[in-house]
Design goal:
By secondary structure, the protein is an all-alpha fold. It is built from nine helices and no strands. The protein has one domain.
């Protein structure tokens, strides 16, 4: 489901044979290494699925994306747990710590104390919210099964949201590549917008 931005798309059977496994691997990798733009990948895949003849294409994208996100989250949480239990920590725990700003971690810990695992659902929908909440769960010694129960609806909501962005972008343009560009642009704007706004407020407040 990863489209070519320029030119004609490959045959539909080729897209499905190559695209779905690629989407799964990239989203799972993006959950483990939070630098891969997984939201943009899901939105792009949704655009391509929207222009396919199969009525189940969008459903398959949703299932693949949510399952891959869940698998990546569980693996990262398990690796983080090993670091929490270890006296010397671990590389994966340091990666999670480095990507969680202290103020965001403090907010996540407070919300986790107040609302419990429900915060996991919102963490995937808020830009840059997943890692601070995951770290708060790790530091709070939340068991893996409890984390998994909260992460299931989080991944489903996340996949549905970014798929909807792709559908909206794809429905505005006749060519799939145009919809991909629009969906990726909208995804980047949603992801980077809050961070840019906070930086602008901090700069002008000083």
């Amino acid at each position: 489901m990863i489209p070519q931005v320029v030119g004609q798309l490959p045959p539909e059977s080729t897209q499905q044979a190559v695209g779905y496994p690629s989407l799964f691997l990239l989203v799972a990798l993006g959950a483990l290494v939070p630098v891969v733009p997984t939201g943009a990948l899901v939105s792009s895949a949704a655009v391509v699925a929207l222009h396919q003849s199969s009525p189940f294409s969008l459903l398959i994208v949703f299932v693949v994306a949510s399952a891959a996100a869940f698998l990546g989250d569980i693996c990262l949480y398990w690796l983080g747990q090993r670091g929490v239990r270890s006296r010397n920590g671990s590389r994966w725990l340091r990666v999670i710590r480095d990507r969680a700003a202290p103020e965001r971690l403090a907010q996540a810990q407070q919300k986790l104390d107040e609302h419990g695992a429900v915060v996991l659902v919102l963490s995937r929908l808020v830009p840059a919210g997943r890692i601070p909440v995951m770290l708060a769960c790790l530091l709070g010694r939340m068991p893996l099964p409890r984390f998994a129960r909260g992460d299931v609806p989080a991944c489903l909501a996340w996949a549905a949201t970014y798929q909807l962005i792709g559908v909206l972008g794809g429905s505005l343009f006749p060519e799939p590549w145009q919809g991909v560009v629009a969906a990726v642009g909208l995804t980047v704007l949603i992801s980077a917008g809050p961070t840019m706004w906070r930086r602008m407020r901090a700069r002008f407040s000083h």
